[in-house]
TrEMBL record, chains A, B, C, D:
Residues 7-138 form the Gfo/Idh/MocA-like oxidoreductase N-terminal domain. PANTHER family: CONSERVED EXPRESSED OXIDOREDUCTASE (EUROFUNG) (PTHR43708), OXIDOREDUCTASE (PTHR43708:SF3). This is Gfo/Idh/MocA family oxidoreductase. InterPro entries: Gfo/Idh/MocA-like_OxRdtase_N, Gfo/Idh/MocA_oxidoreduct, GFO_IDH_MocA-like_dom, NAD(P)-bd_dom_sf. One of its GO terms (molecular function) is nucleotide binding. It comes from the Bacteria. Pfam families: GFO_IDH_MocA, GFO_IDH_MocA_C3. SUPFAM superfamilies: Glyceraldehyde-3-phosphate dehydrogenase-like, C-terminal domain, NAD(P)-binding Rossmann-fold domains. Residues 146-276 form the GFO/IDH/MocA-like oxidoreductase domain.
Length: 385, 385, 385, 385
């Protein structure tokens, strides 16, 4: 009988922070996780106000992540937080994550996981040492129809994969809005965001999705990166030719200056026998195009889906689930795995299907390769190991 | 500073109950409501197991709604539940709702509100007497793009309304599945569901949506009801010609035997100057067709939307919100109104935009008129007052 | 070896006439028919100018249909026109058609076939007497994916049909434009158009399509007709409940005041096992929704289609064919049947698949029933025999 | 008064030839061009049979293009063909085109225009010398909504262009079908098709479309070409990074092994202020995405379109026009320009909007650059001048 709610502490995510609120909704929707404490802002006043708005007890509204980790460690095992969710800008991922792991707390971390590949490797080592769980929120691979896509590829319904087209156009940075909008501000500042802009913010999602669905690793790439908006410090657009381990090719295109686009992540995977198409903005449909047979529309909530897709769906067909539910799938699977770990039992296989430190590290290597390829005059740059 | 979480008690919604789980997700997503107690099943064993699964304390897992209402009433004002959410089959709506109101508890109730119009009127009287809030979960009018549609009509962008086409095709009852599936079982049993089947289950949503968006009341109708599946006790399909107060006409078509359809609620409203189209399965888009100008696509999350639409959205454009989020809008608005009431202040206007006992009563009169029209040989039957 | 081009004479269709130009394009596209003569306008000057623009020889540009029929009759069998295409407003269909038949000419006629049912019956008798072919251009049933839909129903892939929803919204008459636009003018004038407006112009297409795809006859109806635009003489909108011979029900909705709509003819047919959906504005796709299996998209030009669908397609998949090609299918099938008849052989079955005088007569009875039902206070009016 | 029909002679396009039939339908639909003679096949027997099927007089069914050009030259100016339409495989374009020009005949030619850039340059010189018209059938830029897209870019509605994504996935060569299917056979044979396969067959359409809509020239590229099907002699897939003269970037992706795709040419153009999207398989809609305003759908046949778009439309909105009509726009504009030339007057500007020898030559240079880039280890290869 599973009735223990997991206790979550949050770093970042104060009032007006977008992604922190998403994490709380995602963690809260399934009733298995409760926010018990937070260091919700680097500004102690904002942290306190935010905690009050969220109904946190005063004594568990901390002024810093260090304080939170130290103080929670002192509480009894029953009472202290079980894991830390870190929803700060990129530059403030590594230190709280490392400290949390060092104090025995599991971690949920936003992507890209760190500022540098070195930091990512240190986290991976620490996870290996401690046996703790570090989950990285590559949200889009958590959609049920993405699970179905991966399942169809695995089953061989496409035959050998030949071509992968993945694109992620957004338009919200089409103008110079960095100075007015905090969301835009840190994402375009190399010190806060890392060496890449658009690619770190959204390109890494696209790469993760391509590898997740196809089960194939990118082995080389040819990147053309651009900064279209005058005065911007990081690239806001990029097109990349891809090579995969089995000889498949592809294109990854990401943009934050595709004026008029919202969040139009889309992937197409073609094999010898057919092609799959999935579009995040129409997330409950997976299109399966076949050679010499009618195109099929797989729909979330239907009984004919694979078990792994159904495991990540809450509602009957025709009741759309969206971004928060996909995000919640990560938290739900993470929580189930964590609970199993706490109970000393093996998690169910379907519960272990969430991105971990290995995905986070791979994301960092992807970004490093992208930057190297962007600067190179050679066509191909090998994926950095 | 808003930090009080509202406490919810639930009647029905034990394990395997679909709609109870939806209510809990919807209530939980925004972090303002917590489930504090429940009488989760008419079967005490199931009730207890369900409560344990949800992490409810043993002493607040009640064996019946009567027990819950009595026991919670004995608790201190700070500690007792603030409202009851009733998610039982139709036949078990009225008694717990009435008892809750009589003991001073606010109520959230599934639609159709009651078994009979008389019961609905009794609830309305009790609400008027007590000043308590009774919210009826007509989910679909809580979608943000439905709010935008209502706004555009109100603003006069369509001119005078001429025609309203609303349809709600489902296919899940295409075969005789009543005996095997509890969801289907009570919905097709007149004693548990009321005098109508398809119309009570989904037709009433369509009627509510049409009146909500257009701001117009249905004044007459001509119904053709059918039971296509042999042995079924209630209608599983119906087409209704509609007349509205301003002379507009329309069609309401609902079916649970539209084989291959999921939950394809769709509405089109045409006025002198243009037409609106909204499809629940593509909920984040509102199509605005204009005379002599390009069709416009309004999209959830965009800055150009009306304040009332934005009030019911959590995420930026391109991050789809779905059924649970729409449902959560009802809970969130209800909760904000309830909190204002508890604090003795006027709620914000946008928070009061949720369906109440008046909508529930109107729904019952709609069903009564549908049944009367279905039996009549005359073309038109006036909407029953 | 088939190398004879059929010779067409045209009544109506002078310069600026919309539908006459469509007939000429449709007749011309497949290279089997050539325009040899015409009485292109009731105004002799316009007739002559139009003939010159079309490159007709002066001596075969006639001042009236009477003159054309008489003069062409005098020509040798090799030289004279083989058939007459009549593309005048409704009121000017019957006389030239009857005279053409009386002089031994085959006829292509626009819908609705005549002004009255009596005229339609006279034409049917004359066709029966003479053995000539009279083709009525119900364009929409000539689309290849409509053929595929009919095929799937015939094959039993939907099981017994339960429900048919057909709709035909247009918006072009949303305002009072009759006085300025000749297309609108005669369509809204009872003397030129007949007793019905919207239903005669487009509703009859919808009814034909429903019966064509389903293979079922409408047996009763309940019509609500409206004239929304002040000063208009005929109905510009209507919603009709339908009953079919096998007990299936349905709705036919047509409007010319659905502001913002173009020519959005759409049909859905539901049976026990699945549903079909076809939308004229996306004509190359047929959607097949199934119980408990993914929805399938049948696409024009694919090899997996039925022979009757392929017979009506010119291009490989992905090369869209449209309205003119559908129209041309009627001419092509008519021409092949006529050629076979001229050669004294049986036409191929697939060539005989075009609407004839029987369809034209049925269309007139449909309109008569619609008008009777519209005036009746009873719910149901039986389809007039 | 325009009543002269132009006379067309055809080289290639015998029975069972796909593209020849398309040319005849396209030339025939508007009633301004008639097929007067042909050398319809390299096989004299097939040529004669094909001519008979098309109703050509025996004496104008020629055994070779040489015979046709010589014999037609001997006829009187009124009687002889006005232009030659060449619809043979690529390797048989140059010689008949050159000979036709040398004998004073205008030419319509399929793309890619020739086998080599040198041949293309020779044709361009001959056109310049003779003042004759050579039209190359880049069909897709003839769609009305493509004209509208070009118009919106020209008008500045997108601001400066930043990014162009053009893709052309087909799936029909997913398997090794060369030996059985003549269409596939010559397209994959270097001696008949030229040095490129997929890029010459469809990639060149995509490049033309990108330059046509944007008004920008490609200046550099980085091509990754693949042959996925074992035993195939030419590339069947390719992805190309693009650079444009104004600094815009882009991707061109074409494939004939994108299993399950039909003919899914699609282009997106993004500028500072918005983005355009057009999909050939939904050809009557142009999507205009705007910053901070609802997305607009421009639809063929609407009054609000630009004059150049309307010039290329035959039907009112909602009556879909397709591939043949687009193709016919080229013939219609070519014919009008040719007629003006024959009458010694200036053609109307809108009539001159069809692809000419300059477009054909640019297409050959595009292919040459693609091949060079595909072989290069450098990232960028400049567009060959």
């Amino acid at each position: 009988m599973r009735n223990t709610k997991l206790k979550m502490g949050m770093v970042g995510g104060g009032k007006n922070a977008f992604i922190g609120a998403v994490h709380r909704m995602a963690a809260g929707i399934d009733g298995q996780i409760e926010l018990c404490c937070g260091a919700l802002s680097a500004d102690p006043l904002v942290a306190r106000e935010s905690a009050a708005l969220l109904g946190l007890p005063k004594e568990r509204s901390y002024g810093s992540y260090q304080e939170m980790i130290v103080e929670e460690s002192k509480r009894s095992a029953d009472d202290r937080m079980n894991f830390v969710s870190i929803v700060t800008p990129n530059f403030a991922h590594f230190e709280p994550a490392m400290m949390a792991l060092e104090h025995g707390f599991h971690v949920v971390l936003e992507k890209p996981m760190t500022l540098t590949t070195e930091q990512a490797e240190l986290l991976q080592q620490k996870v290996a040492e401690t046996g703790l769980i570090l989950c990285v929120t590559y949200t889009y691979s958590a959609y049920p129809m993405v699970k179905q896509a991966r399942h169809l590829v695995k089953e061989g319904q496409l035959g050998s994969i030949r071509k992968i087209m993945v694109e992620y156009p957004q338009g919200w940075l089409s103008k110079m809005i960095e100075n007015g909008l905090s969301l835009a501000f840190w994402r375009t500042d190399p010190e806060k965001s890392g060496k890449s802009g658009c690619m770190g913010d959204i390109g890494t999602h696209a790469a993760h999705l391509a590898e997740y669905i196809s089960g194939l690793k990118i082995t080389k790439m040819c990147a053309d990166l651009q900064t279209f908006v005058t005065g911007r410090k990081l690239e806001d657009d990029g097109n990349i030719l891809l090579g995969f381990e089995n000889g498949a090719t592809g294109v990854l295109s990401a943009s934050q200056v595709a004026a008029g686009e919202e969040n139009a992540l889309k992937i197409r995977v073609y094999g010898e026998l057919g092609g799959l198409e999935w579009n995040q903005q129409d997330a409950n449909t997976l299109i399966f195009k076949q050679l010499d047979a009618p195109t099929q529309l797989f729909r979330a909530g239907q009984q004919y889906l694979s078990p792994i897709a159904k495991h990540n769906i809450r509602l009957p067909a025709g009741h759309p689930e969206g971004y928060i539910e996909a995000f919640a799938n990560i938290y739900r699977n993470f929580a189930a795995t964590l609970l199993a770990s706490m109970q000393g039992i093996d998690p169910r296989e379907e519960d272990t299907d969430f991105p971990t430190v290995a995905d986070g590290l791979r994301g960092m290597k992807f970004l490093e390769t992208v930057i190297a390829s962007g600067k190179s005059a050679q066509k191909w740059t090998n994926f950095i190991r």
